[in-house]
Design brief:
The chain contains two helices and three strands; from the N terminus they run H-E-E-H-E. The longest helix is centred in the first third of the chain and has 19 residues. The protein is globular.
């Protein structure tokens, strides 16, 4: 999955991750920006400030009870 997400890059990673059923993604682009989904944001603690953090829509859609 890492190779597919790397090749997809910042514009297409979300679509690829969702189609592969991946729940947690963090991608660093060529400018040092960090792209991640909200679920990954809850798991990550950054020690250095990146250029920018870009949070996507959730990868996994909440069920009817959420």
């Amino acid at each position: 999955a890492a190779t597919a997400l790397f090749v997809a890059g910042p514009k297409e990673w979300h679509r690829i991750a969702r189609s592969m059923g991946i729940g947690y993604v963090l991608l660093v682009d060529k400018d040092g920006n960090i792209h991640m989904n909200p679920e990954m944001k809850e798991r990550v603690h950054l020690t250095a400030k990146p250029a920018k953090i870009i949070i996507s829509e959730p990868l996994i859609k909440p069920g009817p009870d959420k």
